[in-house]
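Input for the complex:
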Amino acid sequence: MRTWFPYPLLSIALLVMWLLLNQSLAPGSILVGLFLGMVLGWVTLKLHPARSRLHRVSRAAGFALQVIADIIRSNIAVATIILRARRVPANAGFLTVGLDLEDENALALLACIMTATPGTAWLEYDRRQKILLFHVLDMQNEELWRGTVKRYEAALKEIFQ
Amino acid sequence: MTELAITWSVLLSQVMLGLAMACALYRIARGPRAQDRILALDTLYINAMLMLLSFGIRSANTIYFETALIIALIGLVSSIAFAKFLMRGEVIE
Amino acid sequence: MSHLTDLPAWAALGVCGLLLLGAATTLIGSLGLLRLTDFYERLHAPTIATSGGTILICLASMLCFAVLQSRWIFHEVLIILFVTVTTPVTLMLLGQAALYRDRFEERQGVPRKPKPERENSP
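Predicted:
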């Protein structure tokens, strides 16, 4: 089974996506979806993605809820900043924070979460010194932003390590 | 009554999305630097996708949703290619 | 406007509200492109359109077609997933490209590249 489907989760996700795009459960679509999952699994094998182990998947749901709440809150905050930008210029700036996440996939997830949240943008991560450079739109309190990143990091560490 | 409300709200939201596209277009024309233009182009793609979604709600036609997916895909690929080009001067290293 | 008249009043209200809210959010995000003064500030503006606007408008469309039961509503789920996963990648790459160019031109107000640590071994 492993030789046919080296990444079972990826293959299942591709099959599901194919069926949703086709909006049918006909045997033909399932066959094509399985074939796609197999071939793209082999292609992924050539790319050597870093494998990571999920330790506490149960924590993921709470973390996702927290991230969604943060995204809604910062959506409103950034919208008010933009609407008032004529009178009050935005107080933006660069910040650095040290990270000690080892797992590549956890780092990628952290980057996606931080960039998807309005108000923070991931710019550069120095692998050797483990320092992250990011940009925030509203720099009222530097420690607050660093604390937010550290909170995400701690949650991801619990899930991945 | 519901028909009137829904007609007007779809129309109003399309006007707002059109204004959003105009903002992005202004930023593309104005610049000042290449990265601003690419960022605005990416926003323009997303606004166009949302416009297609609102057309889909108005006409109940599935084809609009597939078009929206394709536009999102093309926007992603072109923006990434532009960003890579800015960074190195070539797309594929 | 044939099919939309079949919606019951509560669903029509929900669809209208979500659609208008989503369009307004998108408009605010694009307005940010005009009003913010610096590239790095403008980098935050499209995330409002993608995270807020896309999700709200897709929810409106899902509500509409779920009540009408005229077709599957999974295309919207795919669009939400696709947009939320891919936009951060674009923005991160653009931010890195801008940082690289600004450092290359030695602009003011851009953080320097962190100096590599000195090797301790002789």
